[in-house]
Amino acid sequence: MLEFRNLRLTQGDFTLTADFQVPKGARVAVIGPSGAGKSTLLSLIGGFETPDDGDILWRGKPFGLSAPFERPISHLFQDNTLFAHMTAAQNVGLGLRPSLRLSKSEQSAVSEALRAVGLEGLETRRPGALSGGQQSRVALARVLVQQKPLILLDEPFSALGPAMRHEMIDLAKEVSERLGATMLMVTHDVSDVDRFADLVIWVEGGTCQPPRPWAEMKADPPQGLLDYIGT
Ligand SMILES: Nc1ncnc2c1ncn2[C@@H]1O[C@H](COP(=O)(O)OP(=O)(O)OP(=O)(O)O)[C@@H](O)[C@H]1O
Fold first, then answer.
1. Cα dihedral angle (17, 19, 21, 26), rounded to 10 degrees?
2. Which of the two residues, 167 and 40, has the higher pLDDT score?
3. % of the chain at pLDDT higher than 70
4. DSSP helix/strand/coil, 14
5. ABC transporter domain: which residues (predicted)?
6. Of 73, 107, 116, 209, which alpha carbon lies 20 to 30 A from 35's?
7. Which of 8, 14, 155 to mutate to test ligand 1, by most ligand atoms within 8 A of the CB atom?
8. Interval 69-101: pLDDT, tens
9. What's the gap in Å between 213 CA and the centre of ligand 1?
10. ipTM rounded to 2 decimals
């Protein structure tokens, strides 16, 4: 379980607060207007920002001031962060070892992850020779191979067209199911939420609301959500 305990961060005149729990294995969409604090929430979980007050707990233990690499988290951001001069397999292997000195079993894990995302046979391609969707698959394979129990996606597929984006979201769901991981995804698209989420964290003006079932929130939307989706 992921828990936000009286979490607070102030940056200039912006203050983010969160005080709730996210159940283990949930797929959670983080939505809200631009500038509401969605990326800041993910940065706090990842350890890229330090709260002024409160803490984030994972399985009952506070993250405290632990560094990003010490946290049990994989990340996927909008630009995929693939290295252009490395092959697909090397880009995935980096998720296991920055030195890329992989053991036999680690090499097998990389091949298996690439197979799982439908990239068998493309292991030696560099990102420039892959389509946008294939690059996203490499990034997802890197998340898969890391086998972390907590996965943060910040508008991961927003550069893709709708059909490809939906394919990637389905694949991300598969990855979360394979790993039994808790997944939080920032998105601006309600159709992504429909496809992806069990629960939704609504963020508005820095206030992160406790997760609610998406079906329930759609049936009784907060005014901010109605304004946001333009209904
Ligand atoms: N270093 C900083 N100093 C002051 N304010 C900041 C700083 N970094 C971010 N902010 C403010 O924090 C708020 C939250 O930003 P954040 O990027 O988390 O929003 P978001 O909901 O992810 O927005 P978007 O949907 O546009 O990506 C914004 O109002 C932003 O201007």
1. -20
2. 40
3. 98
4. strand
5. 2-230
6. 73
7. 14
8. 999 999 998 766 799 999 999 999 999 998 999
9. 26
10. 0.92
Instruction: Write out the H or E segment, with its range, that includes residue 105.
Output: helix 104-116
Considering the domain 2-72+150-229 in this protein, what is its CATH number?
A: 3.40.50.300
**pLDDT (tens digit per residue) in 180-189:** 999 999 998 8
**Signed CA dihedral, 77, 83, 89, 95: sign only:** negative
Ligand 1, atom 8, residue with closest C-alpha: 11
pTM of the entire structure?
0.92
Helices 162-179 & 132-146 angle (0-180, nearest 10)? 10
| pLDDT of res. 227 | 84
Nearest-CA residue for atom 18 of ligand 1: 37
CA–CA gap between residue 76 and residue 168 (Å, rounded):
12
The closest residue, in CA terms, to atom 17 on ligand 1 is 39
Candidate of 38, 42, 189 to mutate for ligand 1, largest count of ligand atoms within 8 Å of Cβ: 38
CA of 206 to the centre of ligand 1 (A): 9
Q: How many angstroms separate the alpha carbon of residue 35 from the centre of ligand 1?
A: 5
Model confidence at 226: pLDDT above 70: yes
User: Stretch 17-44: mean pLDDT, rounded?
Assistant: 96
Q: Which atom of ligand 1 has the smallest separation from the CA of 203?
A: 21
